[in-house]
Amino acid sequence: MRSEGCVQIPSFCFMVLRGVLIWVHRSVGGMSDRQLLVDAKDIGKRYGDFVALHPLDVRVHEGEFFGVFGPNGAGKSTFIKLLTGQLRPSIGRIEVLGIDAVADPQQLKANIGIVPESESPPSFLTPPEFLTFVASLRSLEDVEGKVDHWLSWFGLNEKRDTMCKDLSKGQRQKVMLASAFIHAPKLLFLDEPFANLDPIYQRKCREWLLDHVAQGGTIFLCSHVLESAERLCNRMAIINEGKVLAAGAIDDLKLDGESLEDVFIRLVGHTIEEAEQIAGTDAEEE
What we know:
- The chain contains nine helices and twelve strands.
- It is an alpha/beta fold.
């Protein structure tokens, strides 16, 4: 595929044209041979007169580590809630693992792993009680063994008899991550998963996630931490104010000599500067 002024478009990339996130690929093997796990078409969520993320097309294949990055309030959590059946889109269709996220959100949630932003485990359950509940709900075998494994993996053995409400923020985050990891889901959605974790467990979780993808798992990550994109993701989207600014393989987003931080500031900083100019103009008119 060639166009004037462009030598070659990568085999698999996202392009953004007039605010629309478009999946572009050539059938040369690789990702085209993998199962399509997330297929969202023309989605958006209406908030009053504003339709966030619209028009947006998203396709994520098996074995990808896909990241969505943006500043606080950019629309990342809305993005992930739409794809996981926690919010109904105002427009468009969403299929995840072949399941209609609008028509059957409960079946969808039963087949994926989710770590929502700023969520905590039930206050009056202990960590093993909560993980046992999750494992039993998912009809896992060797529930006791799996619960013991993840409590040990996250260093929570000494908190086995502590109610979740009395855990630290980092310990509660570990319990939430354990509840998502315990069934080794084919598709895992993570919204700011490293919040409140110390550097040791951030690294440990990154290594587990990369290993999970290497074994065929797929991860959809939302964060504002660009370091996570550099270390983990093979593709990413940058969003701000409910709009996708750019998306694709990380190297394809960079101009000559740019770091990922430079890309982020170039895209997001520009929109912030425009907003400040508009605000300044309004103030002058008043």
